[in-house]
Structures are given as C-alpha cells and as structure tokens.
Task: inverse folding
C-alpha cells in the first residue's frame, strides 16, 4: 500500500478528485459543515486509514501539491501588483489595522487560555494562528497549530463575509484585510471570489500578519511574564 501511496498519480488523483467532489457537494448544498476543506480532509483521512497508508508515504506522493504552494504565493503578489493603486494613501491605515489585529489576536488567546486554565504549551500553540514555525519557537505544538490554522481559516471564511455584511462594511480594502488577517489562505480564496481588490489586499494581509505575529508573540509573551 505504501508503494501505491508514494505514486504521484494516486496521490494527485485522490487529493484533486476528493476536493472537486467536495466542492461540487458544497455548492449544491451550501451547508457550512460540508465546506470542501473539511470534507476533503475527512475523506482523505478515512482513505489513508482504511488502506493502512502511512502519512509520510502519502506526503511523498503528493509533494507536487506542496511545491505549488510557492507559485501560489507569487501569484498573490502579482494580483497585488495589479491593484497597487489602492495602496497609495492607505499604507499607514493598512499597517495600523493589521498591527492592531495581530495584537488583539495574540492577547485574546492568552487571556482566554489563562481564564480556562490552559497550560503554557497550548497557549503557545494557539498564539500564532498562522505559522507552525512561530509556534515551535515559542514552545508550542506545530502540528496542532496547523490544525488550528485550517480551522480558523474555514470558520473565518464562512462567518467573515456575513459579519461584515451585518456591520455594513463596504470598503473593499477593509474586507480584503479582514479576511486575509483573520482567515489566511482560506479567507483569501473567498476574498478573490468577492473581487480582485479584496483578493489582493487579503494576500497582503497574510504576509503582514505573519511578520507582525513573528515579532509580537515573543514580545507580548515577555511583557506578560513580567506580571
């Protein structure tokens, strides 16, 4: 079975086929719990468990998909370049909004974790909500951070547009920044569907949030440890 799992044809067929089927199901039902990412992850896990395929073997066979993450990031940069005029005059407001969002996200996790009695490792795992590397350096559990990133992304991409509609947020820049900063890659995919400007600013927000989170997590953790 492991030889089959290492086959690129098998892995790509499984991943792409499962996602397309899940996407078709979601578009037909519009049930949030049947979000294509949730359904795809569940189906792939069931297939790997049923066929007794080790994840490491499956990962080797699907390395092409992992490789394509790089070009996809570059593609977001090109989309941002096409919408560069929207950055003019808005640089300070964009940086400020993402900076405040990063602080609120980190502090809220620490506060809720303390109130609920979570241990330090769990809090460190939840703090970044965007990168496994940050969680590992702050004493967290990288693999669990990856799960949190996916969960937060799916939740934000579903709830975010609804919340902004209820609050009457019409700014295309604000919509893009909100989805990118809070829901990362999944949110950006939704932002791109809303519009080119939203997609471009969402991609920018991912990069800015990653940088600011990497800087702020150790700083905020140090400040809190002093009290």
Result:
């Amino acid at each position: 079975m492991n030889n089959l799992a290492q086959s690129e044809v098998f892995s790509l067929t499984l991943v792409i086929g499962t996602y397309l089927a899940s996407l078709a199901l979601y578009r037909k039902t519009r049930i949030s719990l049947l979000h294509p990412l949730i359904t795809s992850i569940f189906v792939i896990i069931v297939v790997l468990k049923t066929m007794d395929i080790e994840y490491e073997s499956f990962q080797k066979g699907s390395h092409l998909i992992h490789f394509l993450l790089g070009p996809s990031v570059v593609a977001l940069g090109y989309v941002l370049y096409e919408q560069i005029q929207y950055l003019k005059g808005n640089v300070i407001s964009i940086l400020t909004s993402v900076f405040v969002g990063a602080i609120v996200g980190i502090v809220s996790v620490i506060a809720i974790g303390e109130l609920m009695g979570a241990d330090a490792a769990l809090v460190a795992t939840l703090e970044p909500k965007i990168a496994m590397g940050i969680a590992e350096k702050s004493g967290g559990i990288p693999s669990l951070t990856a799960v949190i990133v996916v969960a937060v992304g799916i939740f934000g991409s579903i709830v975010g547009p609804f919340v902004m509609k209820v609050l009457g947020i019409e700014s295309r820049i604000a919509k893009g920044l909100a989805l990118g900063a809070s829901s990362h890659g999944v949110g950006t995919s939704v932002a791109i569907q809303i519009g080119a400007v939203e997609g471009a600013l969402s991609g920018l927000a991912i990069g800015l949030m990653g940088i600011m989170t990497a800087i702020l997590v150790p700083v905020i953790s140090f400040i809190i440890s002093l009290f």
